[in-house]
Amino acid sequence: MSSEQPVKPLIRKSVELFAGAGGLGIGLAQSGFVPQMVVEYNKWCCDTLRDNHGILGDDGRSDGKSPWRVFEGDVRKVDFRPLAGKLDLISGGPPCQPFSLGGRHRAYDDARDMFPQAVRAVREARPRAFVFENVKGLTRASFLSYFEYVKLQMEHPELVARPDEEWQDHLRRLEQHHTSTRRPGLHYQVVTKLLNSANYGVPQKRERVLFVGFRDDVDARWSFGPGDFTQEALVWDQMFGDYWERHSVAKKDRVLEGRALQLSKRLSVEEKPESLPWRTTRDAIGDLPDPEGAKSSHQVLDHRFQPNAKVYPGHTGSYLDEPSKTLKAGVHGVPGGENMLRRADGSVRYFTVREGARIQTFPDGYKFHGAWTECMRQLGNAVPAELARVVGDSVAARLNESEAA
């Protein structure tokens, strides 16, 4: 076995916007991007950030170093100009505009749309790179024009909307500027990717869209692969490997469903996939005690049974031997929505906060503030920390290579 120790990531300065409970920031910190400022509006999220990031270190782990500076309040009140030229990265998940795109609306400073504030932060701080994420719904066909509008703003952050200018008119000016041969000022090369977290080692089928941008003077040549984990490899492991034995699952509970069942009919023992198996809900939480009636569960942080879970149309819980369904923020039906575990016998129970944190790949020592519903809201809005780390490693590698060239 090699005696070499893992190389510590090069420490780079960043700013985290719309931080929520901190999932994106944790993963990026593990890649070496240490926040100089963390901006978040929600009180409970800020309590969570302050409580944990006094104990999380430069790599996002609990080692007692480098507390994060949390700014609790409206991002529109933050002046990023003092940070100009001092940052390697700005990151965050700007809340997307909720209004119908059928009408005409102001493009600038709408209280319900924080993308302009993300662009303002980039414009004022001029980071070498940025990573912004949002929900898959932003890529729907009905949002196509707005999606392009967001991307063009990020590519040309100094072409600001005029007072009272409609977003469609601003989009036209951005398109004209983008196709011009004379484009002075600040510009970024932006790539967008729709990612399924399960393909990157997260025990959850969670799709997010990424905007990754590099300043024009950074020769990043960045791209992002499809991930090292696949459902085919998981089903092969369940059919021909030792998945069930590793987890001591009784034969009567060894169930395949949906596409997994279809895949099982096409796979053969001789053709083992080269990819890694998707991580399942059982992989994530199987070592935790059952919180229902288990006294030992009270010894695990945030691992308490939440009663009254029920199945209703469209919400049937997550099968234990696949990645979980997307954790939701509690606005889809009953509190907790889809945040349920479905056992082999068809019964369901809610995930505990600790189980939700495992599924979102937060560190085990991470403590969430608020009642169960509030904690699950924070988790449902979070970026999986492991997905953020994989993205952060990729961005950091390109920055390192551009500097060495």
Automatic annotation (TrEMBL):
GO molecular-function terms, A-Z: DNA (cytosine-5-)-methyltransferase activity; DNA binding
Keywords linked to the UniProt accession: Methyltransferase, Restriction system, S-adenosyl-L-methionine, Transferase
Organism: Thioclava atlantica
Enzyme Commission numbers on file: 2.1.1.37
InterPro entries (UniProt xref): C5-Methyltransferase, C5_DNA_meth_AS, C5_MeTfrase, SAM-dependent_MTases_sf
Transmembrane domains' residue ranges: none
Enzyme class: transferase
PANTHER family for this protein: CYTOSINE-SPECIFIC METHYLTRANSFERASE (PTHR10629), DNA (CYTOSINE-5)-METHYLTRANSFERASE 1 (PTHR10629:SF52)
Pfam families for the chain: DNA_methylase (PF00145)
Catalytic residue positions: 96
Gene3D superfamilies in alphabetical order: DNA Methylase, subunit A, domain 2 (3.90.120.10), Vaccinia Virus protein VP39 (3.40.50.150)
Stated family: Belongs to the class I-like SAM-binding methyltransferase superfamily. C5-methyltransferase family.
GO biological process: DNA restriction-modification system; methylation; negative regulation of gene expression via chromosomal CpG island methylation
Reactions accelerated catalytically: a 2'-deoxycytidine in DNA + S-adenosyl-L-methionine = a 5-methyl-2'-deoxycytidine in DNA + S-adenosyl-L-homocysteine + H(+)
The protein's name in its UniProt record: DNA (cytosine-5-)-methyltransferase
Superkingdom of this protein's organism: Bacteria
